[in-house]
Structures are given as C-alpha cells and as structure tokens.
Amino acid sequence: MKVGVYFCNCGSNISERIDAQKIASELSGEIAWMEAVDFACSEEGQESLVRHLAEHRPDRVVVAACSPREHEATFQRVLERAGMNPWLLQMVNIREQVAWVTPDPELATRKAARWIRGASARVRRHEPLETREVEASGNVLIIGAGPAGLKAALLLAEAGRKVVLVEKTPVLGGMPVRYEDLFPNMECGPCMLEPVLGEVMHGPHASNLEILTLAEVTEVTGYYGNFTAKIRQAPRHVDVEKCIGCGECIAPCPASSPNEFNYGLDERKAMSLAFAGALPNAPFLDEAACVRWKGEDCQACLDACPVEDTVLFHCGVKHLKRNAGAIIVAIGSALYSCAEFSALGHRAIPGVYTSLEFERLLASNGPTAGELRAPGGGPPSRVAIIHCVGSLDEKHRPYCSGVCCQYAFKFNHLVRKKLPEAAIVHFYKELCVPGKEEFALYEHARQTAGATFVRYTSLADLRVVTEDDSKAVIYRDAAGAEARISADVIVLCPAVVGPADAAQLGATLDISPDRFGFFEELHSRLDSAQSKMKGIYLAGACQAPMDIQKSINQGLAAAGYVLSGLVEGKRLRIDPITASVDEPRCSGCRTCGAVCPYKAIGFLPDSRRATVNALLCQGCGTCVAACPAGAIQGAHFANAQIYAEMEALLQ
Amino acid sequence: MTPSTASEPFEPKIAGFLCNWCSYAGADKAGASQTPYPPNLHVIRVMCSGRVDPQFLLQAFRLGADGVLVLACHAGDCHYKEGNYRATQRHRMLRRMLAQFGIEEQRCRFDYVSAAEGEKFVRLVTEMVETVRALGPLSLRGFESLPAA
Questions:
Q1: Which long-range contacts (CB under 8 A, 24 or more apart) does B140-143 make?
Q2: Stretch(es) of chain A classified as CATH 3.30.70.20
Q3: How far apart are CA B115 and CA B98, in angstroms?
Q4: Domain residues for B18?
Q5: What CA–CA distances, in Å, run from B93 to A123, A163, A480, B31, B90?
Q6: Phi and psi for A568 in degrees, rounded to 5?
Q7: Interchain CB distance below 8 Å, B43 and A93
Q8: Helix A68-81 vs helix B23-32: angle between axes, to the nearest 10 degrees?
Q9: Domain ranges in chain A with CATH number 3.40.50
Q10: In a domain, B136, yes or no
Q11: B10 CB neighbour count, 10 Å cutoff
Q12: Which residues of chain A lie closer than 8 angstroms to B53, CB-CB?
C-alpha cells in the first residue's frame, strides 16, 4: 500500500524545530514518499498537493502540518480535487502539539517521527467513506399556537412551507390574548397579536397553513426529515368555515360550567366563546357541559344559529395523520402550584388570586368586565402583590422566573389607573427588571403615590390571615419583628414552571423535560431553540421562563433552523462518521440504545438486533465503546484504526 | 516498557486519549501559546471521550505505554451531551481492575480539560510524566503475552 506523506514547513514554524529530512530517511522503508511543502494550506500549496497526488496516485495520504481542527477539511477537499476519497487522509498535528511545545529540535523531531509513523499505520486501515443522502420533507408540524408558534408558523408559511399548527384549546394566541395590557409598554395584548392571527388565518399565505384547534399530537414516528404524526382532534361542533361569529347560539344555551379561560372565576355556557374577541371567531360546544350529551333533547343553539349546517351535533373525534420534516414545540409554560403555600391562602381565603387570575380580573373581557372588587363587593382599598412566590427558593424553584416583577409593576400601573385611592404594597424577595424598556414600569411603580415596597427574606415568614371582614399579610420587618399590613386583594406571583403536558408530550416526541419540567435544550447558549432530538425544535416558555419578545425570537430561530436544514428540493446529507451494527455479532442486549445520547439506535423486533439510524447518529462512538459484543463499529474511528495508531505510537 | 539503562535515563511513554472538542482543543491552545511541556505524551484523537473503550487503555499498556491519560470535556460541556459521564464511569471501573494486573493507579489518569485550558493541559501532562517517571517503567509481570484484542 502506497502511503504518501506531505510535510508542511508552515513557513519556518514547523521546520525550525523539526527536521523533515531526518524523518524522511527514518521512515523511508514504511512510506512511499515524504514531500516538504512551505505552506500546504495556501492556494499554491493546495494546488501543488493536488498535482502531486494526481500524478503519483497514492493509496493513502498523511499530511503532517497543523491541527486537524484547523485544516482537516481543507486537505480532505484537496484529496477530492485529486480524485481521491477524502477519508483516505490522516493529519498529524506537528505544529500545535509538537513544534510549538517542544523547544529541543532533537526531541521534537523524534516525537514528530513517532507521530507520523502512527498516522501512517492508521491511514492504511482507513476506508473510503461515502456521504449518503435521503429525501426529506420540508413540511413542519408546530405544536402550540401562542406567540412563538404563530410567528414560526407565519414565517414558514411565507417561505412557502406547508405548516400544520396544532392547538389544544379552541382559541389561538396563547396567553397574551388573555391579557388586557402587556409589559413593558402597556400595549393591548389581543391587539398586538390580532394582525399576526389575521395573517395566519386569512393572509396571502394562509393556504400553506392548516390550523387544528382542540387538537393534540398523540403519536410521532420517524425522524428528522420524515416524521409522521398522529393527531387527535376533538369536535368543536361548530363549522369554523361557515360560522359568522354572531354568537346567537350562546345566549339560549341552558347549560353552564366553570370557565377555564377565567380560571373558574365565572361560568361559561356549554356553547361559548373562550372570551369576547377570541379567534377563530366561532364558539365551541363543550360536550361535558352540554345537556344533549346528558340525554336531553336540547338543540337551542342549533335553533338560534342563522347559518344552516353550522352547528353540528353529529361529528366525532377526528384522527389525522400528517407528515413533516421537522417539529416545533411551543406549548408554553405553567405557574407553580400555590397549594404549596397554604399559609398564603390561595383558594382558601376569598380575594387571594394568582397573577393569571388577576390578569383576567383586570381584563375588560374578563369575569368582572375589568372592574376590581374586594370580596365584599366594593372597590378594594388596599392591594398587596407578593413577588417571588416559589421563585429564588431552593425548596421550590431556585431560579428567578424573570417576568413576575415586570407584570407586577404592570399591575401596579393598572390598579392605580382603576383605583386612584387604593394603597399598593409590593412584598418582594429580589427585584429583577433587565432590558432597555423594562425599567419604565418599575420607575413608575416606585414613584406611585401610595405604593410601598417591603422586602422579605423568606416566603415562609409570610402568611395571609383574615381579620374582621378584611385580610392582612403578616411578615417579618427589617428588625425581624412580626408586622402586618391589611389588604383586600392579594395577588401572588408564582414561579413560572414547565408546561403541564411536558412529561406526556415529551414521551411522545422522545424529548426529555429538565429537572424543572421545561424541555431540555441541546445547548443552553448555542442551541436553546433545538431539543436534543434532531429535527425537533423548542420555542417559547416551554424551554425556560421567558417573555413574549424572547418567545417570539425563539420561534423565529426554530423556523430558521427548519429553513436552513430542510431546503426545498434538497436531500439531507448523512455525515459518514457514524456507527453501524454488525448484525450477526449483536446479541440484542440494547446496551447501545441506553447510552446513545441521540436516541439514534433502534431495535429490530424481528431479528432482535440493534440498528443505527445514520441520520440521527452524530458519530460520538459512545455505543461503540459500550457494546459488550464488539458488534458496533464507528466509521473512521474503528478499533482496528485506533489500535494500529497506538501500536506505532508506542513501539 | 522502555528499556532503562544507565546511559539512557528512563523516558516514560504516555498514551493520551483526547476528545476532539474540548481537550484536544485545549492541547492546541497550549501549542498556540507556545507553552513547552515534556514530549512524552502521544496523542490519540477521538471524537468523544465516550469513545474510549477501557480496552484501549489496557491495550496501550500492553503495547508499551508506561502511563495513560484520558482527557474529557468538563461536566456539562460534552459536545455529545453525556459522553464524558460515560467515560468517567468506565474509568472508575477500570482503575479497580488495573490493580489486579499490578498496574499502579497513578499510571492511569482521567481528567477534564476545556478548549480554553491550555495551561491546565500543560500542568496535567507535566505532572503525569513526572509521576510515571518516578514510578519507573511499567512491568506487566507476564501479562504482555496476552493476545491483542
């Protein structure tokens, strides 16, 4: 076998420490030639290598030069240009790891000779590898129609991609459409999202979008480029296409149940809209509340509807199947349960609300049409806002949820606007208002007459007690003495936690929630919009607590990954450095599957053998080292190659 | 086993398994800052420390290494998410086994070097070479006749 070695002088960086001549004569029996080049990576250097290779046609090539991290790809291309398979190359790092760190030329030359001998032994065992390609779908499945999912969907649809947008509730827009105003600029929540929703539902690219409300993804098979999702869609019993949104069907409905969109603070009809202005502008019929599903012969809604065939009683659950190359998960977050803090009295003492409940009480389309009332009925004279409920707390959630201070100062502003006389008390552990616009509401709160700030050390020192017909927050003052401030309305700002569905959807998609219940990102800084499963992306607060701006940015980032990774008409390239199973040697123990960080190893049930999905495999080789039967080979890092290198290096 | 004679002092041979993304880059960093270290380390680059089969280490000793150094990414930094944890587990297991072959624990070292830790890399290599130099050449007490894997 003819092994050609190219020795890069790197100007004098290498040659002043390492004697190429000496090595050439020492290795003369083992290699076909050793050619010294001044700057192998330069245009002329590469050209001279291409010419030399094409003329002398070695079987294998060693380039002794700088770090392979620097120029391995360069010299692989040189081999390709000379008509060779690029994987028949081995680089030796005689610059960074020999010449530059070994001042004595004698020792440096000896070390370099040994390393080149190692590379020569290794490269003889290299095999030509091929980059394979597979067909991939450019369609995208997006789960969750909040700001992150919507903006991702719109961007992809505008780029001509077919998007299936799956939303669990009957309404689009996620959380912000339930907020009257948004921090930091007091923008109206529904108004901000309505143009986006308009584009999604009726814009020039709406034909690229399939919107499925009341729908859930129940099963996903396949992998990056070729996922197949099963979707279960519950019946709305109202034809969204035909419905004109007049709402005539709602008033005559005789049945009602607690309104989940207002967190049970009021009731809604069995036939209802989530709230006034909810989109799509069509009511939904809740079978669990409807008397028809309890055996009564009611059709009040149908009788009231002015459009024929719009209220539909006889439609069942739909089971749909959709193909997609990528999946974007944007299912949002949840609030930490206030049941953890019984001393704060949520659900036990009237007038104690979570921040989400309070948002709805402030909203003009909420249960009180935006009017704030104390439990007795009159306007509250004192509102207490307790920050950091569960956040920054080792016993609960050690992190800062990042959004609570800002909405608390928004509440401050809205309460002051609605109740000019009311006192407002902020109980806080820490304050956190980063960002170029966010300080304004904080400044405003600080300067609000009648607003006070009380810092507490531990939430355990706080409790809410009833006194006469009002309530008080008991706390510990700066001197450590127990103190009390009375309040009619108390708002708790609970920690933001992972979505309730994280575990279930995580199991369906094979993406794992982290210890806080958020979906785990591939890399917390570099790739926070990617899950650990290739082709499944994360957007918005299901990855970490975040505000609307960050959520939308992450949605757009996820869409960017899809647009660059799955290019219309282009096949997916599979990097040849992957693992493969030697089936006859495989005992089916599944050790490999357990150690694979990419879930790239499947199991063939018939033959009871492991199989590697080359598209998902990243080539780390952990399974190769783990296989007790030696049945898995790692391409380009095979045992035989590594042993050959070791043997020559250590002789 | 390097022959040690009066005329030629013992120079240990250390096999170093370095992961491509952190520790190999850390070694390159040491090079870029031109910090000298003993030339006794012979580097075998792998993509991930998780690829380092414990048998590689046994083979290295059998093939003539007086010491073996496995360097991985720091906890949480693995390019492949968790290969370094696998490597840590395997190393702990291997060290227990090595005693049965009569190989001193200090001849087999596992550590973490990030892409920025050129200085730490130099320190580890220097320490390793000094430690093994003090231990003297490896004697396998007959195990060297074992067949290759």
A1: B140/B1, B140/B61, B140/B62, B140/B101, B140/B102, B140/B103, B141/B101, B141/B102, B143/B62, B143/B101, B143/B102
A2: 575-635
A3: 29
A4: 14-145
A5: 31, 50, 53, 32, 5
A6: -50, 125
A7: yes
A8: 100
A9: 3-123
A10: yes
A11: 16
A12: 624-625, 639
Dump pLDDT digits (tens) for A267-317.
999 999 999 889 999 999 999 999 999 999 999 999 999 999 999 999 899
Question: Residue A554 has what DSSP assignment?
Answer: H
In this structure, the number of other CB atoms found within 10 A of the CB of residue A604 comes to 13
Question: Could you give the CA distance from residue A294 to residue A303 in angstroms, rounded to a whole number?
Answer: 19
Residue B26, number of CB atoms within 10 A of its CB: 26
Query: What token pair was written down for A25?
Result: 């004569």
Averaged pLDDT, A160-173:
97
With respect to residue B109, please indicate whether it lies within any of the assigned structural domains. yes
Q: Three-state DSSP class for A574?
A: strand
Of A115, A624, A637, nearest to B42 by CB-CB distance is A115
Per-residue pLDDT tens for B94-105? 988 898 888 999
Q: Which residues of B touch A649 (CB under 8 A)?
A: 15, 42, 44
**A272 bridge partner residues:** A284
Mean pLDDT over all residues of chain A? 96
The ipTM of this complex is 0.94
Helices (H), A223-373: 300-304, 355-362
DSSP per-residue codes, A385-448: EEEEESTT-TTS--S--SSHHHHHHHHHHHHHHH-TT-EEEEEES-----SSSTHHHHHHHHHS
What is the domain class of A336-497 according to CATH? alpha beta
How many Å lie between the alpha carbon of A103 and the closest alpha carbon of chain B?
A: 7
Q: Do B27 and A597 touch (CB under 8 A)?
A: no
- Pick the residue from chain A with its C-alpha nearest to B121: A97
CATH class assigned to A132-234+317-333+498-574: alpha beta
**Which chain A positions have a beta carbon within 8 Å of B119's beta carbon?**
none
- CATH number reported for the structural domain that contains residue B96 in this entry: 3.40.50
